[in-house]
Structures are given as structure tokens and as C-alpha cells.
Amino acid sequence: MPQSFKTQATIFFRLSFCLLFTFFLLTAYTQTPAKNKQQQKAEQALLKYLHKLCTDFTKNEMPIELGTITKPFRIEQESLVLVRRFETDSAVLFQKYIMPVSEITDVFFDYYIGFEGTSYQSVSTAIAKGNEQQYNKSNSLLLLHVAPVGDIEEGYTIQTKLLSLVKALQEAYKK
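and the corresponding C-alpha cells:
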């Protein structure tokens, strides 16, 4: 009996090892190549600056309602993604904005700072009513508003820096 148990344990161990090793090889083979360091660095720099703008400039005195950012800017599949919350008298809405980095042609600055796309299809939006998990495509836009920076002199400096960060990321994606 002890010999049989030892044989079964050995077979079980070998089979488990083979299955785990096969699983490891399959996952390693099917993974997409990791982003190069230049892309990661450019993404992190842009996201850090966008987060700073969204936290430093929150007072909005103009008629465009920007809502409350519920999920900070992030990058998914080389696109900027942002989720904002809007409250009305009767409902809470979540609006998701997706803008491919390759579609950004300029950074605008008037009262707001934001991104301008190549066309009115550059920014896709989707709305979820009260549940942030179920989005329905709703619209496309030309502009993606980032923050209400106001009429400050540093606005042009912010615009220049933001544009340089976008251009650096676009170049990193081309490599």
C-alpha cells in the first residue's frame, strides 16, 4: 500500500507540474509585448500632469458643466479615458470619454484647457445612468475638456507643456 500511494503521489506531482508549466508557456506566449520604457515614461508624464491640472483647477465659473471626475485620466489601448459624474434633479449620470492619443491635433486654451481632435468623431462618449458599469454609446465630439484653468497668464505655459507631453507620447507610440 505505501508503494502505491508513493507512485500515485509522484504521478500526481508530475501531472500537476506539466499542467502548470504548459499554462505558464501558453500565457507567456500569448501576452502582448510589454510597452517600451519610452512609452511608459511618456504615458506617466502626461497622466501625472493631467491629474495635477484636474486637482489644481476645480472652480468652474463658465456655462460648460464638466461634472465631477470619478476616475482620473488613464490610458487604455493608446487612448485617453476619463469618467465624469453629472447630477440632475432626477438622475445621476456617468459619462465616459475616450480619445485616441493619435487623434489629438492641438491643445486649446480659452477659459478651459483641453484637447482638440482631428474631427468631430475624435472623442467618443458613452453614458451610464446611475450604474457606472453599463455604458451606452451616445455621442462623438471634437473637444475633450480637461480643466477650467480660468483666465490666468500661466494658461499659455500650461497649454505649451501639455502639447509637448502629447507630442512626446505620440512619438513614443510610433516607435
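(Above: one complete record from the training split.) The mean pLDDT is 84.
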